[in-house]
Amino acid sequence: MRDLSLHLMDIIQNSVKARATAIEIEIDARPHTDQLVLTVRDNGCGMPPDMVANVQDPFVTTRTTRSVGLGISLFKELCELTGGHLEIDSREGVGTGLVATLGLTSIDRLPLGDLGDTFYILLSADPGLDYSLKLTAPDRTFELDMTEIRAEIPDLPVDDPAVLNWIRAYIQENQSAVFSGVLGEIES
Amino acid sequence: MATLDQVREVLGAQILVGNDLDQRPVAGGYACDMLSWVMSHAQPTDVWMTILNSINVIAVAVLTDCACVLLTEGVELPPDVAARAQDKGVVVLGTQASTYEASARLHAFLNQHP
Questions:
Q1: Which stretches of chain A are DSSP H helices?
Q2: Dihedrals phi, psi of A99, to nearest 5 degrees
Q3: Among partner residues B36, B54, B59, which is closest to A1 by beta-carbon distance?
């Protein structure tokens, strides 16, 4: 996973597997405290307390095909490598929240990656989910809410290629606008 | 095919965890510190060289079923990680050599002992 958007995709897939219908994603760049905070909250089935406690152990997983589940473990390691941390709070029948804090200017922090591509893939797979995305920098913010977008285009399915392409471009444009000059990444 | 026991001797590496090295065939090596990348690229008969020493390294070794983990540059194995390696049957070797040097030696040896 060569950028943060791939980790984000992995986390969101956990929410989908937990049968969430609404998934909130927030990415908050905080240069004053040198933090990049990624938050994913869902209304899925949640986890029992012992599983929350064990979720950072790479040998604990819901998978039955193999004994190793690594998504959260790898992401937690990355967070800690950059001087940050990862916390999960979950309640059975209510949902799960994951907060990943990374060192914004740490050399080991992976670049954010392309959130437009990430959402293109997520929406293609599950167009009916109520995703919301919020990007925050000190003086700029961007919010996208799939419930609102669906209401705007009642006659078009979200997974129509024209809609998907538009959403991808819209996110890409705003990712650049919000985080330009904040993440210290080379922009192509 | 070369065995892990022969490879260990050629590399001058120490056994940090593991036994029965002569029972483990080695056909190649893999050098990478990005665990997700190793997961999808390392092969079961590879010596995986890395400077990482977290619990996740052992999980990736189990997943890829690589011949062993070779910690380079004198990186130490924390006791809890060593215990998990023992528990999961993962061989972990250690060397002072860099990943580059260890790769070069391994490559030369495996070329002569295919």
A1: 4-17, 49-54, 71-81, 115-125, 146-152, 161-179
A2: -120, 115
A3: B36
Q: Tell whether B39 is within 8 A of chain A (Cβ).
A: yes
For residue A51, pLDDT beyond 90: no
Residue that has been written with the tokens 């419930």 in this structure: A147
CATH code of the region B2-112:
3.40.1390.20
What is the per-residue pLDDT for A66?
47
Strand partners, A100: A38, A86
Enumerate the residues of chain B whose CB falls inside 8 A of the CB of residue A70.
35-36, 39, 56, 59-60, 63
The DSSP symbol for A32 reads G
Percent residues over pLDDT 90 in chain B: 91
Compare all CA atoms of chain B with the CA of A10 and give the residue at the minimum distance. Answer: B36
Q: Containing H/E element for B84?
A: helix B79-88
* Per-residue burial over B46-71, b = 16 or more CB atoms within 10 Å of its CB, e = otherwise: bbbbbebbbbbbbbbbbbbebbbbbb
Sorted by where each begins, the domain ranges of chain B are 2-112
From A6, A67, A77, residue closest to B62, measured CB to CB = A67
SS3 for A79-134, per residue? HHHCCCEEEEEEECCCEEEEEEEEECCCCCCCCCCCHHHHHHHHHHHCCCCEEEEE
Q: Which domains are assigned to chain A?
A: 4-113+129-142 (3.30.565.10)
